[in-house]
Design goal:
By secondary structure, this protein is mainly beta. The protein has one domain: Porin, CATH 2.40.160.20. Helices cover 9% and strands 53% of the residues. The protein contains 1 helix and 11 strands, in the order H-E-E-E-E-E-E-E-E-E-E-E. An 8-stranded antiparallel barrel has the order 1-2-3-4-5-8-9-11. A two-stranded antiparallel ribbon has the order 6-7. The longest helix has 18 residues. The radius of gyration is 29 Å and the shape is elongated. About 9% of the residues have low confidence.
């Protein structure tokens, strides 16, 4: 058997160093950080204002539809209103909580309306008049954060920054409510 020369020993040493360096270079996993985000998945969510369905186009961009039936009272809405419309959410990179920007358009029915019944006793007849409120088109902008436990479940919350009435209402003017306009918290499930 022939003895190995210096060149052969250097080759063996370089290969061994590469293998040992690669084997000991394992990734450090921080259990306090979340790297999950749904990707190409359909999902639904439940929040304090109602429901929504959505699709994760990618890990950073989701589109969906609000299906909200809200039972709260503030200066812009009555006690009960319906809010249906599309939205988009852009998630920024993050660790435990991923910040996001949210924009949506809502077709809002501010309240259920009222029925007035008037009876004419002399004629023996009555008339019913249905008074429905004007439907509004509103633009919403919000910022918030979401934590994904895995690719299928996330909890989120956001603060509304803009609520602009684009059409409808009493005078059909664009009305913009500024400041912090409440928030939303909820949970999402993806499949």
């Amino acid at each position: 058997m022939k003895a190995m020369g210096l060149r052969s020993w250097l080759t063996v040493f370089a290969v061994a160093a590469a293998v040992v360096g690669t084997a000991s270079g394992q990734a450090v996993i921080d259990k306090n950080r979340s790297f999950f985000s749904p990707d190409k998945q359909v999902g639904f969510g439940i929040n304090d204002r109602g429901l929504h369905v959505q699709y994760a186009i990618g890990p950073a961009f989701h589109v969906g539809m609000n299906l909200a039936l809200d039972f709260y009272k503030d200066s812009a809405h009555s006690e009960t209103y319906y809010d249906f419309g599309p939205y988009a959410k852009f998630l920024f990179s993050g660790g435990v909580i991923k910040p996001y920007a949210w924009a949506g358009v809502g077709i809002v029915q501010p309240r259920t309306g009222a029925v007035t019944y008037t009876r004419d006793p002399e004629a023996g007849t009555g008339t019913a008049e249905v008074n429905l409120p004007d439907t509004e088109v509103r633009l919403y902008l919000a910022v918030g954060g979401e934590h994904f436990f895995n690719d299928n479940v996330g909890v989120y919350g956001h603060v509304n920054l803009l609520d602009a009435m684009l059409a409808g209402g009493v005078n059909n003017d664009v009305v913009i409510d500024g400041g912090l306009l409440g928030g939303t918290v909820g949970i999402e499930f993806f499949f």
